[in-house]
Amino acid sequence: MKIGIVAIQGDFAAHAAMLRGLGAETVEVRAVQDLEGCDGIVLPGGESTTQLQFLKEEGLFDAIRKFSKQGGPVFGTCAGAILLATKVNNPPQESLGLLEMTVLRNGYGRQLASDVFFEPSTLKQEPLEMVFIRGPIIEELGKGIAVLARHEGKAALVEKGNVLAATFHPELTDDTTVHEHFLEMVAKGAAMANGAR
Length: 197
Ligand code: GLN
Fold this sequence. Notes:
By secondary structure, this protein is of the alpha/beta class.
């Protein structure tokens, strides 16, 4: 499986290391042609405004939307989750609109800006390690979106169909659970695409 990791700025290298550790091939995505042959896309954490601007300039904004609309699995963490949302507040900005949710950037404020938490998830029995770094809060979730983990009662890991979003940074821990889950989504997507051919 080949996973394209958007590599404009932010912690793309941590995603690549974790995915390679799980046996996936990775490619850094900075231009539309880098997406060729990719079975899944990761939108890493970092600064969503900077990333958005680059995605638009390079034509990646439309290319990623197309990839996802055609069933390609996309996984966004933190800034990546902001980019996936349908509505962004604080301040408002354009987004890919691939997951029906409203997010509040830097939603945890200064106090809880950056820290590590262990909370339950639907993915495994043990608590999931969650690193928050100026993460967004999901204020509203659309219908049919599954909540896989919460932080302080608020949805923090959500998915619908081929789109997965975390308001924290699983790539900055030793806990590979969320990335394993994404690779399962990618494997399913690839099986479906083969069946359709
Ligand atoms: N606060 C950043 C933003 O709004 C996201 C932070 C992160 O990805 N760690 O884009």
